[in-house]
């Protein structure tokens, strides 16, 4: 039996690689003759770097850059095993978890460090980039990143603006001709399942600003600032970007990448393609995926939803193992022959998190035993 194990992370407890390895170990215990491929997955957020490094046998590089609050932080980026493509995970450079809760204010955060990583990679000769936009702490419209890449942003007094969210409303003039010219030779594939435009009721500020510390009053201020900033850039480049799907991703960083030729892609699909997932599914008898919690929203851009649809496309049976099953999870039966919670009885959330490895292993063993019984142990 050929089995593909391709889970997302169980947030707060297990990385995608840890979850996949646990499921593999459980199945090997019961079905030692089975061939099992582990392909850890992500959607462009947390775990993107680890997942792609594992799948492509890539390597890590440490770098000191500007963090979300303007301080210097030691972080990392990756490069594919074929030394061809750079992997950048925004959450590791300008991520919300990097900002203490009491300091969360999108007026005070920046994407400058993203641009610094790109600049270093360019200096090393790289021209292809995959960028995961999930988990951002910012709402600067990519102003910080573009400044780091050499784009000129001036206020009404002709002074260069600072790279923080508070400066977005001060932008009076922009000039992309000063940008590092090599950026135009680069390709940027943007892993994000956010389809929001830059501004408006479905824009970056209104939808994502509050979780980054924005008050209701601040949301209106941020949205108006991004609308002004976006208009200045669109008039300069003579091209519309603000209304494009994904422009609102990562506090408008998606918009900034669109202005330098970035291509928005489904995070799960982009990572799956890089890992050769589709070819392995074609040869599989069974695919197993999972995540921390599954509900009706799982079908809208999340890793297990993508996996289930891909399995159905190739007529391969798919199973879903999740920390818990929420509202409307029955919708998932369109793509999965089984949807299981790994929890074995009444438990507090913290206990579930602490015991996630044991619970996942036990559930995977039980499922493997069922498969062995019904399929004769092959």
UniProtKB/TrEMBL annotation:
The keyword Transferase applies. It comes from the Bacteria. Gene3D superfamilies: Glycerate kinase, domain 1, Glycerate kinase, domain 2. Keywords: Kinase, Transferase. GO terms for molecular function: kinase activity. Belongs to the glycerate kinase type-1 family. This is Glycerate kinase. It comes from Bacillus salitolerans. The lineage of its organism: Bacteria, Bacillati, Bacillota, Bacilli, Bacillales.
């Amino acid at each position: 039996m050929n089995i593909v194990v391709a889970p997302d992370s169980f947030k707060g407890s297990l990385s995608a690689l840890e979850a996949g390895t646990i499921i593999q170990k459980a199945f090997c215990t019961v079905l030692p003759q089975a061939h099992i491929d582990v392909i850890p997955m992500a959607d462009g957020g947390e775990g993107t770097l680890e997942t792609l490094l594992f799948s492509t046998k890539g390597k890590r590089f440490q770098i000191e850059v500007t963090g979300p609050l303007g301080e210097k932080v030691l972080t990392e980026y990756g490069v594919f095993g074929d030394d061809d493509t750079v992997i950048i995970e925004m959450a590791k450079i300008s991520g919300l978890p990097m900002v203490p809760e009491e300091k969360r204010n999108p007026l005070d955060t920046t994407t400058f460090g993203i641009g610094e990583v790109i600049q270093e990679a360019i200096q090393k000769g790289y021209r292809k980039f995959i960028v995961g936009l999930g988990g951002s702490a910012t709402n600067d419209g990519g102003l910080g990143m573009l400044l780091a890449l050499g784009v000129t942003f001036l206020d009404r007094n002709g002074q260069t603006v600072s790279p923080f969210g508070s400066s977005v409303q001060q932008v009076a003039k922009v000039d992309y001709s000063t940008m590092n010219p090599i950026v135009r030779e680069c390709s940027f594939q943007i892993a994000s399942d956010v389809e929001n435009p830059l501004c408006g009721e479905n824009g970056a500020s209104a939808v994502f600003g509050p979780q980054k510390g924005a008050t209701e009053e601040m949301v209106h201020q941020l949205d108006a600032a991004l609308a002004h900033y976006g208009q200045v850039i669109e008039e300069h480049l003579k091209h519309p970007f603000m209304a494009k799907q994904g422009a609102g991703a990562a506090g408008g960083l998606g918009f900034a990448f669109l202005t330098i030729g970035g291509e928005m892609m489904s995070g799960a699909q982009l990572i799956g393609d890089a890992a050769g997932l589709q070819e392995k599914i074609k040869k599989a008898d069974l695919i197993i995926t999972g995540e921390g919690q599954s509900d009706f929203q799982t079908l809208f851009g999340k890793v297990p939803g993508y996996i289930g649809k891909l399995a159905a496309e190739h007529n391969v049976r798919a199973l879903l193992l999740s920390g818990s099953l929420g509202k409307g999870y029955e919708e998932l039966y369109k793509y999965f022959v089984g949807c299981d919670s790994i929890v074995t009885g009444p438990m507090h959330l913290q206990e579930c998190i602490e015991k996630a490895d044991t619970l996942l292993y036990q559930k995977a063993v039980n499922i493997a035993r069922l498969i062995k019984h019904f399929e004769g142990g092959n």
